[in-house]
Amino acid sequence: MKEALNLLGLARRAGRLAAGRQAVRRNINRGKLLILAEDLSAREKERWHSEGKKYGFKVLEFSKKDELGRALGMRPVGILLLMDRGFARKMEVLLGEENLQKDSSR
């Protein structure tokens, strides 16, 4: 998880990450991967999952709002959009490995 949070910070510094509802809406056409906080409301998650389908990019749920915000050096944030294919692929790999590790420990 720490690697994934570090990657988000790097993407933000590189200008390849939109954080928050308004920033994501402004950049939705450039999106490659949408990340939603696990503690986002069910209604909000449903809305953004349909946006992902509409624009043709994956939507992943990861971490909590306060952890995401802390990793980015900002207040808690629940919606992030990666706008770079390389960052998006790396994030999918990191989160995929993390989910595999959680499943194998059961």
From TrEMBL:
Gene3D superfamilies, alphabetized: 3.30.1330.30
Source superkingdom: Bacteria
Domain Ribosomal protein eL8/eL30/eS12/Gadd45: 5-90
InterPro entries: Ribosomal_eL30-like_sf, Ribosomal_eL8/eL30/eS12/Gad45
Listed transmembrane segments: none
GO cellular component: ribosome
Name by which UniProt lists this protein: 50S ribosomal protein L7ae
Organism, as annotated: candidate division WOR-3 bacterium
